[in-house]
């Protein structure tokens, strides 16, 4: 059975301070058109569960439509790392990580309507380690792989340096550590810096 690990988008979901918030409304109703309801949305591309394209932080980086979808479908490991502000290589080495995708669960409860003041982040050595064992996609349950107030976005650049695509704001509160099949696909937005995604996982044998 496939499990949805995507934050549900609503007009109440927290957004990055300064970004355009998510808004859905019916621009036309069935009573008005005589046949259908028609909805419209406006949003930042970095809302809810989303994927960053390197163009987000690098003018020369690839855009979301240029990311190879084949790397976004595959075998994944979900690990739990609680009560750590800095996730080091030494911490990651304690886990038996399989597949090309890793997800890290850092909190027990998702508060979708509250934007956090702080988030746990990886060291660059940890990112290099993930690359060395074949990781191509990294996912975490917080809105950024860098400190919330970072202007240099060192980890975004490090993930790109080591050819790892990062996914932020996965909804992991109802799933446990283990091995999964993973699918997480962005919208095919030409020239975009990022996109909301729909991410799902299915438990697999160890």
UniProtKB/TrEMBL annotation:
It comes from the Bacteria. Pfam families: Cyclase. This is Cyclase family protein. It comes from Mammaliicoccus lentus.
């Amino acid at each position: 059975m496939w499990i949805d690990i995507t934050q549900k988008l609503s007009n109440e979901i927290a957004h990055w301070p300064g970004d355009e918030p998510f808004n859905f409304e019916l621009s036309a109703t069935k009573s008005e058109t005589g046949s259908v309801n028609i909805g419209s949305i406006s949003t930042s591309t970095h809302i809810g569960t989303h994927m960053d394209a390197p163009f987000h932080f690098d003018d020369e980086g690839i855009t979301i439509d240029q990311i190879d979808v084949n790397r976004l479908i595959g075998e994944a490991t979900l690990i739990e790392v609680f009560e750590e502000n800095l996730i080091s290589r030494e911490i990651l080495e304690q886990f038996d990580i399989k597949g090309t995708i890793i997800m890290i669960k850092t909190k027990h409860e998702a508060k979708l309507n509250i934007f956090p003041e702080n988030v746990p982040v990886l060291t660059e050595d940890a990112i290099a380690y993930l690359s060395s064992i074949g990781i191509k996609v990294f996912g975490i349950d917080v809105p950024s792989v860098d400190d919330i107030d970072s202007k240099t976005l060192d980890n975004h650049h490090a993930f790109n340096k080591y050819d790892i695509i990062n996914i932020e704001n996965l909804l992991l509160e109802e799933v446990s550590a283990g091995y999964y099949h993973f699918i997480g696909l962005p919208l095919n937005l030409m020239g975009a810096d990022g996109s909301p995604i729909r991410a799902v996982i299915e438990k697999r044998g160890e």
